[in-house]
Amino acid sequence: MTRDFFNKEHWTVEKATELYGIDKWGAGYFSVGDDGDVVVTPFGADHGPKISLHKIAKEVEERGLAMPVLLRIENILGSQIKLLHETFRKVIKENGYTGEYKGVFPIKVNQQEEVIEAISQFGKSYNHGLEAGSKPELIAAISMMKSRKACLICNGYKDEEFIDLGLHATKMGYQVFFVIEVPGEVDLIIERAKYHKITPHLGLRIKLSTQAEGLWTESGGDASVFGLGMNHIVDVIDRLKDEGMLGCLELLHYHIGSQIPNIRDIRAGAMEACRIYEELVNEGAKMGYLDLGGGLAVDYDGSNTNFHSSRNYSMEEYCCDIVESIITVLSRNNIPHPTIITESGRAIVAYYSILLFNILDVSSFLPPPIPEQLPKSANDLLENLLIAYNMVSPKNIQECLNDALFYRTQARQLFKHGQINIRERALAENLAQHTLLKISQLSKDMEHIPKDIQSINKLVYDVYYGNFSLFQSLPDVWAINQILPVMPIHRLSEAPSRAAIISDITCDCDGKIDSFPDYSHEKNSIMLHDLKDDEEYYVGVFLVGAYQETLGDLHNLFGDTNVVSIHVNEDGSYKFLRELEGDSVADVLSYVEYDIRSLKKRLKHISEDSILKGFITAKERKLILAGFDEGLRGYTYFEKE
User: Fold this and answer.
1) Which of residues 347, 362, 391 is at a domain's end?
2) 84 and 18 within one domain
3) Are 363 and 502 a contacting pair, CB within 8 Å?
4) Torsion of CA 387, 388, 392, 397, to 10 degrees
5) What pLDDT digit, counting tens, does each position of 472-505 carry?
């Protein structure tokens, strides 16, 4: 974008919408209000009230909770569940499909009690079920199930206790499916079912040859670590026939990726699975359910493409391709249409959580002003750097870049060998930095930017220090280069003037956000506003509800953030459902096996020894220990007085 785009006099909120792409990734839930605040519309685009996130952030702090805060907007969960089910129902009716649809939420995507409880409540009328892959998840799922018509899918490795838990739920009238992941599970399930005298509902997880594009491509294909190959499928069928239990086999399940960006892969996977489903019916299995696993992607960057952080299809196209694929394969041999199950987790919960944090400080790329005159004793290279700066123009931009980089390198070498002093070195860096900045600004109006200058543009940015831990709150950004939407949540009626990256406060060079979504390409910086002395500057990271809330680690012992959940009413009012204080210093120390009582005892011994050695007085000891106690109770993040 050219400098004219950021003209302060002609800046509008429409330009802010275009700059941050919120109309593309916001899915109708987020937009820019007329006053320049980001607003949330939890009932979807053009439905219901719009609530200012800036207003919520300020009210959270007024209630005594400091930034950073994870904001959960409960209604969005209900809106996404409704959208998924209503779209499938519409497509099923339009295509004459004779089966039905049942959604299932995989608990691993977000295991928080509040989330699972809300999904179960919102999904009750749609018989929306849960998926569990461990004993803790299974117990949580059973306790949260609101409908006995909903499916409870049991994936993962299953020991005797896991199977017994599922059989207990089956006996209580719940529709529990044991999905056989590895051949060895069959005998144990049969043994426990006979022991409890319960007929189990069984499923097979198959390993498709279809592989999806994106970050999770190895979820499918021969390299997949979970799922049964063709020989194992035949072995399981024969084993169930021997036990007279083939009628228990009702479900076929596969999973080829958590975020499938290309609709072609979804269709290919469904058609391959349907052929196996057809053969299972021909073998005499009861069948009736086809579980396509997860994969419904979230358009994190708003590009609507097959890029790994996007998707090239809509919700309706997703549903259509699944339904049409099943019809195409099964109807030709008059196989009854199964109940469709999808384990959409990311698409359900991503939108409902936003990480809000304040900016603490800025490290500016803009160097000090160039002195009117160089020192009389200055080295000649300083004069050469000044000449390069003054000569910068569209015609010789590459030449000036080369000169600036050459003389800067020379200055660094001379300093290493003691031939220039620290002030001369600082002045050389200053002149070179001004030249690079001038070149970068000039290049923005060029039609074709040389490759070397494009590289320079990636380095010309300020560093805004955000009050958060990337590793705790946004682990996928660090671990798999996940792109998440980031933008200021207020002042959007003002033109931003600073190209920036965002650093967290972990003192780790990896603790930064330097990839930002754009509908045409990935950006290496984001435009932000100058900070004001008398006003907090708030930034939001959006679409963080999937995985980010449970994958975080304790890098630098930064713990869980404060959490606030709200419910928006149709009249535009909202209520705070829950306020959870984040981890204290004592909490995170206990997580890494510190005994807080022993720690306090050691501090007392140290302070007593300091009195004996004359470093402090008894009165000072009291104040110091009180300070340690207060610190242990405090928030792990930066707290302003």
Assistant:
1) 347
2) no
3) no
4) 150
5) 999 999 999 999 999 999 999 999 999 999 999 9
